[in-house]
Amino acid sequence: MGKLTKNTLTKPTAQRDLRPPMLTVHAHSSASQPQLTSARNGFVRCLRVLRTPGGIGAITTTAITTVIILVALFPILWAVLNSFKELMDIVTPVPRFFFSPTLANYKQVLASPEVLTGLGNSVAIVGVAVLLGAVLGVPAAYAIARYPIPAKKDIQFFLLSLRFLPPVAVAIPLISIWIDLGLYDSRLSMVVTYLLVTLSTIIWLSIPAFARIPKEIEEAAALDGYGPYQVFWYVALPVASKTLMGGIVFSFVLVWNELMIALALTSSKSMTLPVVASAFTSMGQEVPWGVVNASTVLLALPPLLFVGILGRLLNSMLKHK
Q: Is residue 284 part of a domain?
């Protein structure tokens, strides 16, 4: 054993070499801390500029939204412009934005007895089909969403599967059914056929609207003495009214613009307006594009009127409640 001396105990040999490397790292990180803080502050300032109402982000979002709206509305605006043009102004190689407007196309459409017949058939058939679909579909959707019905998932899938089928697959068997019953080319057959579309669509779109209503609201109404029908009419229906109106409007637009089924199930007496409008393309050797565009504009007006009337009716009903 060697003899320990005072010099041996106080010799600082390994202290410098055994210093933890983390001390050096901390020294470097503390030196770069002002740079990191400056970069972070610059990034935060950029985010604030993008989020401000007058910032670059708001301007970009507004520009993109405007472009999307113009792209979506351009076909409608172009159809409206062409409905006021002469045929020579429409078929020119260079589109004409400045022209002498004319009402001859609208006069020709409205003077046609087939158009008035088709308009009357469309209003009657589609109106009854949508009304029956709403009266039967909305309570059915509430029952499916709120009560323990066996095979609930299968019912919802069946309703959705009705929209999978192409119109031709539905029209071919229905032609045979209505001919055998003597109801081919009648308003009753068209109402029943369109009812399949409106009923399935309204039920499918109304189930999530009722399912999102908190059950506590209905339970509180039941504690106040409301019965099941009163809970549905005075509580669930007003809460889900906006979504329900969207489903009804969507079903109306579907059957109003339906062409394939109406073309297969009607011939002359019960022709709807889309069938009559499609017949304008076969007038003479040249397609009367002005008349076609005028009929398209007239075909798009009833859904807009329906949305406005339904919205006002719904608002008045909710105010009274």
A: yes
Domain limits for position 287: 110-320
- Residue 199, domain CATH: 1.10.3720.10
Burial class (CB in 10 A: 0-12, 13-18, 19+), 248: buried
123 domain-assigned:
yes
Residue 42 lies in a domain: no
The pLDDT tens digits of the residues spanning 84-123 come to 988 888 888 888 888 888 888 888 888 888 888 888 899 9
Number of Cβ within 10 Å of residue 82's Cβ equals: 22
Q: How far is CA 122 from CA 48, 125, 146, in A?
A: 54, 5, 35
| Tokens encoding 114 | 């087939």
- Which of 259, 280, 283, 308 has the alpha carbon at shortest distance from 83? 280
* Structural domain total, the chain: 1
